[in-house]
Design goal:
The chain is α/β, with parallel strands linked by helices. The protein has one domain: Class I glutamine amidotransferase (GATase) domain (Rossmann fold, 3-Layer(aba) Sandwich), CATH 3.40.50.880. The chain contains seven helices and nine strands; from the N terminus they run E-H-H-E-E-H-E-H-E-E-E-E-E-H-H-H. Strands 2-1-3-4-9-8-7-5-6 form a nine-stranded mixed sheet, with helices on both faces. Strand 3, helix 3 and strand 4 form a beta-alpha-beta unit. Helix 5 runs antiparallel to helix 6. The radius of gyration is 17 Å and the shape is globular.
């Protein structure tokens, strides 16, 4: 099994993670895949740093990222062009948050700014389609919380996609059987307290959203939530990898 991880972050974004003393998100995915599929070959593609051969992989994983996919810049352009090529390969694709937004945009869907961003976690996500209840969402509670951090959401889905889960804020996961693509707006791969550490580092970004007390309460809540989770947040990712194998 050969899996290619597409890094959705810019070089600056990766550098910010290192300054925050956080493991790079591409490496979190790599470690998780190797944990569930120890005999797999897992490679990473950084669109800012190399021209890797993207062919001959059995599946692709698109990480989270920063920025807004609807903006016109070189990073977005390279991500979208890479996505178009990978979609043509016609192998299973997982997209997390930014990864979902890149894939939706590349296929003709629309991403827009969210009126109410979700910082730290998405609350009360409800599975509204049973399509994946015996596969990716097998063993998952019908209503659940998940780690999340995003300013943008799906406004229009591409054709051949269905909404699998949502909450009062936005569409939370989508699936295309014909294209073998599953995406989440939330981050099952990221620990809650990992997001808390990033939020501490980016504290200035939240001044218009939270008071000092509210911000500290969210950080404390995320740290306790990870201790209580006991691996439940990883259910859909572990299921997806299991079905790949």
């Amino acid at each position: 099994m050969k899996i290619l991880i597409i890094n959705g972050w810019t070089r600056h974004g990766d550098d910010q993670h290192l300054k925050a003393k956080c493991v790079l998100q591409k490496n979190i995915f790599k470690n998780l895949v190797k944990n569930y599929l120890p005999n797999s070959q897992v490679d990473i593609h950084d669109s800012y740093d190399e021209n890797k051969n993207i062919d001959n992989y059995d599946a692709y994983i698109w990480t989270g990222g920063g920025g807004n996919i609807y903006e016109n810049n070189s990073h977005n352009y390279s991500q979208l062009k890479l996505c178009e090529k990978i979609i043509e390969i016609d192998k299973p694709i997982w997209g997390s948050c930014w990864g979902m937004q890149v894939i939706v945009t590349a296929l003709g869907g629309v991403i827009k700014k969210c009126q109410k961003p979700e910082f730290g976690y998405s609350k009360d996500i409800k599975i509204i389609s049973p399509s994946l209840n015996n596969s990716i969402y097998k063993g998952k509670s019908n209503i659940f919380d998940a780690p999340a951090h995003h300013y943008d959401i799906i406004d229009q889905l591409p054709s051949d996609f269905e909404i699998i889960s949502e909450n009062e804020i936005c569409i939370q996961s989508v699936y295309s059987s014909s294209k073998k693509i599953f995406c989440t707006q939330y981050h099952p791969e990221l620990p809650y307290d990992y997001i808390a550490n990033l939020m501490k580092f980016w504290k200035e970004n939240y001044k218009n959203f939270f008071s000092e007390i509210e911000f500290n309460e969210i950080l404390k809540y995320l740290e306790s939530k990870e201790k209580e989770d006991k691996g439940q947040r990883l259910q859909e990712l572990s299921n997806w990898l299991s079905f790949l194998s």
